[in-house]
Protein 1
Amino acid sequence: MGQPTHGTQSIYNPQFMNIIRLYMVLFSALILPAACKSDKSPQTPPTTEKIYLSEIAGRADSLLHYLHKNRNFNGNVLINHNGLKILEKSYGYADFRNQAPLKSQSSFRLSSVSKQFTAMAIMMLKEAGKLSYNDTVDKHLRGFPYPHITIRHLLTHTSGLPNYGEYFAQVVLRSKYKFTYPTNRDILLWLINEQPKPYFKCGESWLYTNTGYVLLALIIEKVSRQSYPNYLQERIFNRLDMRNSEVFDYQHKLPYRVYGFRNNKKLYDDHLFNRIYGDGGIYASAADLYKWDQALRTNRLVKRTTLKEAFSPTKYYNNMFSKNYGFGWHIDKDGQTVYHSGSSGGFRSIILRNLHQNNCVILLSNNQDGRYENIARVIYGWLD
């Protein structure tokens, strides 16, 4: 019943990297031809480019097949190079109990990858003139007891608010009553009634916290006068034709909804925080995330100037320090790659995007075990 996380710890994992290194040796025949290729300029003949992309796709497919065969990967992958899907494939089962196979339409829990959709909704409302990033939270959420915390602080993890997960897990463990699922409203009431001490004064440091994005979802509901699930469905998923995406709801089951597991055998799908959204809670297919990636490149939802801020490092402590995190996105030091990962309830997910080139790697898994961020990083490196 632990707190859902997004993979803020180091994405380097020795065990997985050893597996990948072993793969490199076993499949060196695939690697060496591409390594010898030096001309990837616009003058590269189309046939040569196709061969090059085919080598990348084959290499990635071989890696994922090898890892799946050795019980180290179960899920879907989509690799985009210059706007072209060079690999879109499923490896394994949507439900280990009946060995139902994964499909291209399979919808996985995104966990903290959901945060970028929450941030987008806030940006859309800001463009519509319905809120400002500098609005204090208490302007929109009555009773919120921290008067100086703003929407921008929530977006950028500079609020200092503690994570709700540990508190609510302990409440359930101590409870003599029937197991219940906390909601976003419960998180707000906890802050109002308990007033937990922030870890630091807002704007003076950086600390990843799911609590901020739970509050952002409530602000979206208050400002838009729609439920968070309905707002995202109407304003984002439907507009982008993301047919296999929705905010999780026990009453509405996606036709290709995937179930989460541990060790490829133990069902780990019913999570304490299943009724909380904003920080997580979205299910989507890899194909839908590709549509999302392409929409971000063509400014279909917000203006380029608005989106630029989402991919800019956060400054704090009177602009003396910065953190490579924007609005729902981590940013690599080179400023070219943005990404986010997620982990909760038997699922792991990651999306890596190149802002300057139309390259993207999407990896979704319904096996909690493993460090799939490492796999995605290796594949992403082959696209350069």
Protein 2
Amino acid sequence: MQTSIKQVTPVEYDLEINAGPEDLAEDFQAELRSQRTRTNLKGFRRGKVPTSLVKKLYGKAIAYGLAERSIQQTYESEVMQPGLHKVLGQPKITTLEYEMDGDLHAVIRFGVRPEFEVVYPKRVSVSKLTHQVADDEVDHDIEHLRDSEADLVPVDDKVGDDDFVLVDLQKVVPETGTPLIGEKREDVTFYLGDKRLREEFRKPLLGAAPGGTVRITIPDDEGGDPVAYELTVKEIKRKDLPELDDEFVKTATKGQAETVDQLREQVTKRLQNSWDQQSKELLETKVVETIVEANQIDVPESVIEMYLDSFVEEVRKNSGDSLPEGFDEDAFRESRKDEAIYQARWMLIKDKIVGDEDLAVAEEDREKFFEKSAAGGEISTDLLRQYYGSINGLMEQLDQRLMTEKVIDFLLSKFKVVEKDRKAFEKEIEKAAKKNKKK
């Protein structure tokens, strides 16, 4: 058997295997003898079937199985065991030529971890969103809470832009208004404050009175004939918002807050935490984008395929463990390829930084995470720690998350962080989106 390893790209190699019949003959005969002892054919005692007949019946299957094992064993001995290559992803057989009693020719392509030094761009700044929650934001959130606790009260008034309208809906001939038999729906409710409500319904109903009738016409989105309806207003209901007092607060929050001031404090804290988390995520995204853009390293196809496989698996899980009917996997993989390359580059850069800077996750890091996560919650630090330890792989996921945070913190020390308020930050995002659209 002859083997050779040839570099085909900076991060990919081909292992070529050439073997003659004599290289596989001994193992083939051994497999044939083993199969003979298990073969039971009518007219022959078990294990006494002629070898020539066993070969005729099972020879090809034995030969192909032997070829596959030989290729795998050769890959292990020539590539994996010497440790000369930092293999990434799964190897792929790109060529396989073999017939029983003939020559074997196979080529296995495998990817390796690229050799590179991380480039840290100089004089680069990253924007950090800073936002202090204002009183009007707190007011808006509390008004939303009052709105959710409001009672609907019938009113003898014209329809307003935040009212609920109960109607009978009769489909009619657009040109004449003639009712269509069997095309009537009774007691249909429209909420005019719903932004999803079509304007063809909203505008005619505004200002209508109980007992009144309005005609609406809906054009066909595909250019067909329009559809017309006659709506008879039966009842109008309006929200009756509860008074904002301590009693309302106790009821609406189920005792989590007892006074209006406490509610405002809790809402302010929740909104601020949300803004701070959003700021953190946006900053991390910008840091990753910056370092990946500065390090356009080669990525093995095997690693790209690994990420694409994970994207497909995500679709499968979200669709009840089977891909949706008509799902074009090839088109999907092609559409997500750039994202796979991006994530692969970030993974390789992150691993390189971890090694270069000797970063590690310590027990102290985990404890800080558990304490922070449990603070102010209903679960204790000990229970949270037990939970992470009880589920297979969850602690490893936590370590990966904490390691990523360490890498992000290290990268932040390399960049200049510029704080920007909400308006300036949104303007920057809009500018970047326009720039990417032109590419």
Protein 3
Amino acid sequence: MRKLIVSGTTHELAEDLITIGRSPENLVQIDDQSVSGRHAELRLVSGTYHLKDLGSMNGTRINGAPLMDATLRGGERIRFGGIDARYETDTPSAAQ
């Protein structure tokens, strides 16, 4: 099972498209002013999630590096604005 852990809350990822942001319409809602209403999205492509920043004001980072679009691996640290998160899978990867 793939999971996104945001500020200690675990979100199990099962959908092909998962929106992330402050707005209640998002599947993963992050109630923090540093997070945009529609901040980022996770899209499942060929069994792998891709993370894309949706032009957010405070940006998205993976392992400290700014990103626009990236393929996720288990254990990677993500930052949405000022909020820390972690992507986990049941499969070990080089990022762990």
